Amino acid sequence: MRPIGIDLGTTYSAVATISENGQPKVIKNADGESTTPSVVYFPPTGEPIVGSEAKEYQAVGENDIASFFKRDMGDKGFFQIFQGRKYSPTELSSLVLKKLKADAEAELGESIEAAVITVPAYFNNGQRNATIEAARLAGMRVLRIINEPTSAAIAYGLSSKTKAGTTTMVYDLGGGTFDVSIVKASDSEIAVLATDGDHKLGGKDWDDRFAAYLAAQFKEQFGADPFEDQESFNDLMIKCEKAKRELSQRDSTKVSIVHNGEKGTYTLTRAQFAEMTRDLLERTHRIAQSVLNSVEGLTWEKLDGVLLVGGSTRMPMVAQFVEEMTGRPPLRGINVDEAVALGAALQAAADLQSEDDLSLEASSSEEFTLPTIRDVTCHSLGMVAENQDRTKYLNSIIIKKNTPIPAENASEYTIRVSRNREANKLEVYMLQGEVEVPLECTVLGKYVFSGFLPTKTGRAQLRVHYAYNRNGTVDVRAEQLNAEGGLANLTLTIEPVPEDMSWLGRSPLENDPPAPPPVSLVIAVDASGSMSGEPMKEAKKAALSMVEKLDLDRFHVGIMAFSDQMATLTECTSRKKDVIGAINALDVGLGYGNDACPFEKAMKMMDRGEGAKFIVLLTDGCWSYPKKAIAQAAKVKDEGAEIIAIGFGSADHRFLKTVATCDENALMTDLSGLVDSFSKIAQVLSSGDSQQNTSLVMPDDPDEQESGKGKRKGFFSRFF
Ligand code: AMP
After folding, report:
1. Residue among 11, 180, 209 to mutate when testing ligand 1 (max atoms within 8 A of CB)
2. pTM of the model
3. CATH level 3 topology of 519-718
């Protein structure tokens, strides 16, 4: 397969391959030019037109023109509409790639299946993936995505020029972007040590300055603003770009503006142009300085040179500025428009060779021994996490900026298995940025993990892994550490990032949904004569064991005794001391038999609010007025309380079933099983609470209601 490298630029793109003599060379397009404008024109009928022809349509004021879409690459919400159809930046890029591919195929006389494509070093995960997708739409496989400065460094042969290791800055000023990297090269390795950029700074800004200056001159002379008319505006922009290039050759240039029936001709000198755009170069200085500072111990004096890349570095003011900045002239010797594509072709040759090696095919005749390339991450990648006291969200950095690629790192987190939050789901918001405040970072993706296994503590411990692969795209995975049986891999679903992320500006506490109202639970203990002695002792132990297992912030517990009469030992309360005191005070002595019915009284002891209501009834015998008891039980059940009836001794299971909410809520046990039964109920109540079943009384799951088919469903049937 023929090695192909593509520089998919903001303003111009280029394709390169390796010639018969083993040298990289640019493949000319159908117009015989080595670069193709990244411009698309959508005519009213027929296929979109890409390249110089599209640029000419732009010059004559056509509106259906797409350009500079690389600046919006990866922005999922960005679309442009042409001839009634929506186009994403990815689709527009794929049209450029299709044209580059077709022209190169025609020139080479063979088809192109795969290529190395270059992107700015600061391109993030989404932007890189969008580039891979654009190639796929154009019918090409991406052998690898490499960073533009790395590609330029390969083309310059930085590594072959030095054995000992030199440190160079690649200063790449293109049409729409500025990119700066520090590259360390030896004969065996090219390592990018640090990189940064501004994707809204490039030759276009120089054009804009030029045009604004001329438009102001015209307005002063004729009182009309050429910017107000689309055709005059386009014409002016094209002329300015041309004149800007002329100023790279000559000391001055002339531009004529025709607008509103008037014509004005203006002269601009190279020095004037440099003066009016000085601040743009100052911006490159700030970025270059900060990249330099980020490499420990590196200074302008220690730097071995600055390599200029990108069409805009043809402006003499750039070389002058770099000389001022570094104290010596920049490195020369590469074609600034072609270098990136040439380096990509060399990389493609090396990649194809290693593919051949892997598939044990006969290796190609040319041997490309490229140095190993070590790139670094351009941004820190983190995730949204909560601080300890849940007062704010933080950007928890997992992979730091300028980490060598491929890079993998993991961080451990605990998630609260909160009652109100879907405890079995973890939402990871991937952040790009260096600052701690998530809202000041870019949210790159939303990764939702599920498949958590239950934990005893109600908290899940997780490890979230980020892995930067060689294309600079990121793979995310997570595992649960405290699952029973060891590690458990969690299932990942990628979801779109919500448009409204303003919740990150509030505290996690503020974002919690309101806590559900407390659950009222009355333990009603039979205090008839037969309970005296051992039975009452066991009943108290059982009630105490239940209270120990309940979180009294969530459960308000009341204690009552009933025999022929009734006694409220405590109303429903969250005060543990009162509840324990009441249990200890339980005793026989309210009569000998069971004349009383406890349900209505129990109901009165409960909180008035919306919270769920439970009566846990314990009895060891038959009651004097079963019918009355059944009627009262029915009433409180209608009012929303759930009855769990536990019997032992000579209790009647059938009777208990009629008072309980459902058959499963009526249990028969013996004295030795009392503590166990009460503990179990407490456990189920608590776990139900933490599993989101905030409404223990009212099942709101339609399936559940459906399967109930009119039969009341109780507490046990819902949990077992
Ligand atoms: P690139 O994205 O690297 O192809 O750079 C394209 C940018 O370089 C565009 O803004 C061009 O206007 C600019 N450019 C190309 N040639 C020259 C030149 N001779 N002088 C000034 N700018 C140039």
Report:
1. 11
2. 0.68
3. Rossmann fold (3.40.50)
